[in-house]
Amino acid sequence: MIDALLSALPHVMDPANLFAVLLGTVAGLLVGALPGLTVTTGLAVLIPLTFGMDPLFALGMMAGMYNGGSYGGAIPAILLRVPGTPASVATLLDGYEMTKQGKAAYALQVAVVSGVIGSALSAVSLIVFAPWLVKVSLMFGPAEYFWVALLGLATVASLLGDDFLKGLMAAILGLLIGTMGTDLATGTERYTFGRLEFADGLDIVVLLTALFAIPPVIQMIETASHQGMPKELLNLRKQGSVLREWRRYLPVWSRSSVIGIIIGILPGAGGSMSCYLAYNDAKRRSSEPETFGKGNPEGVAASECGNGADNAASLIPALSLGIPGSGVAAVILGGLLVHGLRPGPQLFTEHPDVVYGFMLQMLLSAFLLVLVGGLAATRIFGQALRLPHVVLAPLILLFVAIGVYAVNNAMFDLYLLLGIGVFAYVMERLDYPSAPIILGVILGPIAESQLSLALTISGGHPLALVSSPMSIIVVALTVFILSVPLWGMWKARRVTAG
């Protein structure tokens, strides 16, 4: 691992790739700071624009946007009481109260320092644990990979969204979409509807962009807001120093980082859960729990540190097993596929410079937040909050359309973008999560190909799928993950009936 990191370091320090990380961090800050947009949306817009670029340059921008957007959501949460991203909801509980007390600058400083610490420790965990998980995955054969793919689908379907059945249905829809195109085993076309454009399946760039970029734009058009953030809240002056008070925050940072890393590794848990758990832990362990929600900076520190610690950690199962730990990691998996990089053990053996370079870029972008995410940059990006939605929505739509059209230079992709985007908006209004769809598209073909290969090797004997201890363990985990929400639903119905 050390040799691979040293080999990737010169590529990461290349001026062009350094600029890519910086550019992505700045863009992520802007995306996170704009209410209604999320890191997922920003990445969905970014990925088609990186088509044809050097993989490490593209991944550098993704790494920067991931960490930058994670902190950027704290800006409107603290200044406006509007969470820039879903993971910044816990930040506004104390952050906005600090703004009302005239401590907005200090709250933003706590947020950025805590986010940097969480993101940096998360990147270190990615570098340490991902290669180890790859070594474990090398013991897997086709049957084990089939069950791992199903485990990923079961986990994400049950953990993303408030309704287990809706999450499961979204994952099944992704599986159906993943079957479109030409069957590699038989050469038969499936669900192409006579269209040559579907012969290779539904384009992952179009699908990603439509699912995650179009619904927020439609929501902006719905609100048709002509007003941005009030000018008086943008009068920010430096207040205190968080680093001088590090002893106060060290226990919060330590516990929140551990919570964020653990939640990130768990497939499907996501940043929203980590920031809430970190916030609740800080409140529970505080000597003054009654001050939380009333402007306690430790609440901001816990939320943002837990949120940042979730970032790179969610890529540990994504890069090594192809099972993302969050919706954002699922989109990044799509970005890897766009650049011809298939997640899994082969990624570490066939493209070590790229994968280890990406890990180092995650670490680098975390520290760049100190430079570009400080008070001066926050003041600049805070001005973007004053941009009305009626201006912002068409600008986003323009960039999305240009990026999607540039992939294949085909109007058909734009029609698909519009159709799938409207469908995704309807799904969102009905509370169907979008991330399981992407997981179904990515993991479905993997499960199908591995199942076909396992049955071919065994001569068609189904029992070969559960002939190894590893297969049995993964099957048991899958059954357990699916049974927990079903058991909860059954108990809830019994209570209601009784």
TrEMBL record:
<feature type="transmembrane region" description="Helical">
    <location>
        <begin position="145"/>
        <end position="161"/>
    </location>
</feature>
<keyword id="KW-0812">Transmembrane</keyword>
<feature type="transmembrane region" description="Helical">
    <location>
        <begin position="437"/>
        <end position="458"/>
    </location>
</feature>
<feature type="domain" description="DUF112">
    <location>
        <begin position="18"/>
        <end position="439"/>
    </location>
</feature>
<feature type="transmembrane region" description="Helical">
    <location>
        <begin position="414"/>
        <end position="430"/>
    </location>
</feature>
<keyword id="KW-1133">Transmembrane helix</keyword>
<keyword id="KW-0472">Membrane</keyword>
<feature type="transmembrane region" description="Helical">
    <location>
        <begin position="470"/>
        <end position="490"/>
    </location>
</feature>
<feature type="transmembrane region" description="Helical">
    <location>
        <begin position="20"/>
        <end position="49"/>
    </location>
</feature>
<keyword id="KW-0614">Plasmid</keyword>
<feature type="transmembrane region" description="Helical">
    <location>
        <begin position="258"/>
        <end position="279"/>
    </location>
</feature>
<feature type="transmembrane region" description="Helical">
    <location>
        <begin position="390"/>
        <end position="408"/>
    </location>
</feature>
<feature type="transmembrane region" description="Helical">
    <location>
        <begin position="167"/>
        <end position="186"/>
    </location>
</feature>
<feature type="transmembrane region" description="Helical">
    <location>
        <begin position="358"/>
        <end position="378"/>
    </location>
</feature>
<feature type="transmembrane region" description="Helical">
    <location>
        <begin position="106"/>
        <end position="133"/>
    </location>
</feature>
<dbReference type="Pfam" id="PF01970">
    <property type="entry name" value="TctA"/>
</dbReference>
<protein>
    <submittedName>
        <fullName>Tripartite tricarboxylate transporter permease</fullName>
    </submittedName>
</protein>
<dbReference type="InterPro" id="IPR002823">
    <property type="entry name" value="DUF112_TM"/>
</dbReference>
<feature type="transmembrane region" description="Helical">
    <location>
        <begin position="318"/>
        <end position="338"/>
    </location>
</feature>
